[in-house]
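Changelog excerpt

This revision adds worked examples to the README so contributors can see how folded entries look when concatenated. The first example is reproduced verbatim below.
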Amino acid sequence: MATAWIISTYFKTAIYYYALTLGTAKLFKLKSHRPLIIPTGFLLFGMSQLIAKESFSM
């Protein structure tokens, strides 16, 4: 059951990440979403580090 939860969470996160980059590209009227993939990944990584530090500091 835990394995199914981890796999489903991974795919849900991947779909949200794709939708974020695609939606941002459409918002700024870019021809392709590919230039946004790495910068968005860095932003998400940085935000996850900030959130994890706050939740463990309680």
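The second example, added in the same revision:
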Amino acid sequence: MSDGTDFAVVKEFYDSFVRGDIDAVIATLSEDLDWRESENFLLGDRNPYLSPAAVVEGVFGRIAKEFQDYQAGPTELIDGGNVVVAVGRSKGIMASTGKPFDAQYMHVVRVANGKIVSFHQLIDTLEIWRSQQID
């Protein structure tokens, strides 16, 4: 992390995710975590994820199985102090159907004591749902 600010913690979280360095991603997460995927999203069925281990199993592990060629990096990070908003796109191919998706997302990320304590995703669930449909 570059300067220890809350914004830097969140930037490191996303930079690590884009690099595929899940250990570095996990290092940014607090043990006292409240992680929520969008309602009506395939990863939202286990909300809330209350530990880094739960996120690894229920989010990252499932992303690896459900999606191919997955990419999700923010196009914008909005610094609100201990709250950072990320705007970006989640892209890939649904493994079960072979259909591509390109869904806009927004994440609200909260930091305390140098760690991410809250992550709340809002994503275009219709775009993801369409990619899950078998013709």
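Reviewer comment on example two: Residues 24 and 105 are 22 Å apart (CA to CA). The first helix runs from residue 6 to 19.
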